[in-house]
């Protein structure tokens, strides 16, 4: 072997060892085994999971609402952290993978282009009319809505399925 080949082998071993050391679990983190199909035999890989992290117990499609039995704690046995059940997945999450808060949202209550009930309240005055949602959202989120009578576009807060509240 030439010196150049020997140096490449030594360098690649050093890089491999440093990458493995960087991926080892830190204090307070549990290593979660994850089976990955890689060719004919299955290879096992360790996934670093924090104690407050959830792991998907089944494949979850984008748009699915998370149920209690869909998630488990980092150890794969304990229940998932509170606040994730009832949310909607924005992307597909595969079985055995960690579930990040960034891929969960409030369930969509108003779809884009849906006709919604608009309500304006101020003191004892209540005005109700219909509008068309210009974007989608969940409860508490703000969406743009076009009043069907006046064609004016306003910002409204979603208060229920197909219902928005305008102004104060």
Would you mind describing this structure in some detail?
Strand 1 and strand 2 (42-49) form a beta hairpin. Helix content is 12%, strand content 40%. The protein has 168 residues and is mostly beta strands. The strands form 5 sheets. Strands 9-10-12-13-14 form a 5-stranded mixed β-barrel. Strands 4-3-6 form a 3-stranded antiparallel beta sheet, with no helix packed on it. 15% of the residues are buried. Residues 18-24 and 30-47 have low confidence and may be disordered. It contains 1 helix and 14 strands, in the order H-E-E-E-E-E-E-E-E-E-E-E-E-E-E. Among the domains are: 49-105, Type Iii Antifreeze Protein Isoform Hplc 12, CATH 3.90.1210.10; 108-166, Roll (SH3 type barrels). The protein starts with a helix and ends with a strand.
Note poorly predicted spans. 18-24, 30-47
The termini sit apart by 79 Å
The class by helix and strand makeup works out as mainly beta
Q: Judging from the principal axes of the Cα atoms, what is the shape?
A: elongated
* Biggest sheet, spatial arrangement of strands: 9-10-12-13-14
């Amino acid at each position: 072997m030439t010196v150049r080949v020997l140096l490449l082998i030594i360098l690649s071993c050093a890089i491999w060892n440093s990458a493995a050391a960087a991926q080892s679990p830190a204090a307070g983190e549990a290593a979660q085994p994850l089976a990955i199909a890689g060719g004919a035999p299955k290879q096992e890989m360790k996934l670093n999971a924090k104690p407050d992290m959830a792991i998907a117990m089944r494949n979850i499609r984008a748009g699915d609402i998370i149920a209690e039995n869909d998630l488990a704690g980092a150890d794969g046995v304990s229940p998932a952290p509170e606040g994730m059940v009832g949310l909607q997945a924005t992307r597909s999450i595969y079985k055995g993978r960690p579930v990040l808060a960034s891929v969960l949202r409030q369930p969509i209550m108003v779809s884009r282009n849906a006709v919604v009930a608009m309500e304006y309240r101020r003191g004892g005055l209540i005005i109700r009319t219909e509008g068309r949602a210009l974007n989608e959202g969940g409860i508490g989120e703000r969406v743009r809505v076009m009043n069907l009578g006046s064609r004016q576009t306003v910002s409204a807060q979603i208060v229920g399925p197909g219902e928005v509240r305008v102004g104060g």
